[in-house]
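We were asked to recover a plausible sequence for a given structure. The inputs and outputs are reproduced exactly as logged, with field labels preserved.

PROBLEM: sequence recovery
POSITIONS: 423
GIVEN STRUCTURE:
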């Protein structure tokens, strides 16, 4: 189809280079345009767990890309493992509608889905070759996505943190609203005043099943948004392995406590990127043969400490250190460099696990008590009643009492509206 002397081959390589160099927010649109001459499609959807803030990257028909869910994409990926053959005859529910799809998974685990695929004349000449060709292109693009996430630029971290906070709040509100509705339905159906036993049993089973499904959606989203601290550190070990395997550097890794709090995805990615950058900055100095990396978590922050055995000449102005401070600042963290001549350098980083709360309206405007202010801050962060009760060491009934008072004082009708007004 292509040869080194063919101008179309050069154009394709140029187009692919443009795609892999695109930002994470633009990569779906560029890849869609690249594939269009081979496979026409109504929408292109990428699902990658490397991007915790925005695991979906989409381009095409808004009616599809605005409605597609993680559950639907998980189902497509699962179907590929069960029946990898017959890619052109595949169907799936995407955006709430059953439609033809073609899909690929990359070695990174990322999923590519094209909806309503149609082979163009160029692609129809050899459908099997076209399928393999697009799969190889997708492998390169998926690898680029992973590398971009690993770099964790400040702009990406800010966007990812905002998206994570927004998604967490939406999931919390959705779960709370639907759980309340279903619990009320179950209470009515279980009432002794209802005599239709068969209807009650059937409705009870359906409602219970719906609650399980809803919780599954929430759990799936949480699995994307967080990484257990031990797993996050294990990925760091893999990232640093080439330095150990192909160099003379002795990298000592101190494992974090196994029971530490799970890390938000953007914090885990940033932590690994900061350690990689710091290690590279340290080994650029003369005489460094050993680096010690330690992670810990105090429940509110990821704590990183990196030491070397060099001459102790590192400073905040040293090459490679400046970009690290920008990444830390993007997450509201702290960064410090201490160097002792003849004894080595030490970098300490603290990354907050939670995004800072948006400033609340003055308490005097609504006449809130100190306790109500504390409850309002936690409601605005997306915390549910049980979590608020645990945080403030009060009962859930007391939390409900305070939330009811807040709704009345602020003039809101729902928790979501209360949080929005507070921000």
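RECOVERED SEQUENCE:
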């Amino acid at each position: 189809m292509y040869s080194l002397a063919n101008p179309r081959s050069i154009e394709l390589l140029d187009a692919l280079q443009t795609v892999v160099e695109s930002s994470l927010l633009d990569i779906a649109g560029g890849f869609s345009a690249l594939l269009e001459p081979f496979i026409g499609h109504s929408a292109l959807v990428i699902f990658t767990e490397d991007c915790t803030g925005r695991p979906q990257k989409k381009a095409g028909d808004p009616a599809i890309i605005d409605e597609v869910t993680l559950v639907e994409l998980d189902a497509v990926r699962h179907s590929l493992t069960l029946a990898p053959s017959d890619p052109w005859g595949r169907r799936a529910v995407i955006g709430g509608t059953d439609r033809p799809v073609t899909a690929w998974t990359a070695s990174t685990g990322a999923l590519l889905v094209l909806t309503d695929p149609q082979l163009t004349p160029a692609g129809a000449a050899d459908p099997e070759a076209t399928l393999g060709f697009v799969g190889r292109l997708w492998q390169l693009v998926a690898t680029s996505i992973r590398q971009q996430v690993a770099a964790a630029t400040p702009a990406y971290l800010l966007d990812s943190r905002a998206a994570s906070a927004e998604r967490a709040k939406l999931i919390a509100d959705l779960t709370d609203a639907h759980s309340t509705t279903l619990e009320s339905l179950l209470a009515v159906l279980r009432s002794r005043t209802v005599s239709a036993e068969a209807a009650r049993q059937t409705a009870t089973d359906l409602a219970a099943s719906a609650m399980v499904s809803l919780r599954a959606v929430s759990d799936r989203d949480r699995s994307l948004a967080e990484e257990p601290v031990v797993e996050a550190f294990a990925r760091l070990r893999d990232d640093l392995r080439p330095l150990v395997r192909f160099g003379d550097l002795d990298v000592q890794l101190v494992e974090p406590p196994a029971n530490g709090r799970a890390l938000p995805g953007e914090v885990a990615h940033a932590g690994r990127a900061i350690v990689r950058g710091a290690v590279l900055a340290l080994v650029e100095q003369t005489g460094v043969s050993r680096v010690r990396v330690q992670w810990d978590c105090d429940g509110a922050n990821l704590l990183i400490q990196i030491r070397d055995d060099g001459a102790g000449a590192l400073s905040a102005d040293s090459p490679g250190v400046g970009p690290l401070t920008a990444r830390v600042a993007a997450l509201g963290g702290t960064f410090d460099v201490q160097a002792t001549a003849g004894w080595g350098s030490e970098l300490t980083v603290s990354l907050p696990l939670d995004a800072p709360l948006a400033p609340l309206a003055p308490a005097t405007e609504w006449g809130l008590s100190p306790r109500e202010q504390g409850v309002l801050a936690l409601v605005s962060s997306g915390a549910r009643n049980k979590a608020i009760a645990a945080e403030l060491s009060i009962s859930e009934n007391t939390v409900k009492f305070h939330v009811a008072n807040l709704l009345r004082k602020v003039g809101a009708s729902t928790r979501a509206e209360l949080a929005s007004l507070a921000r």
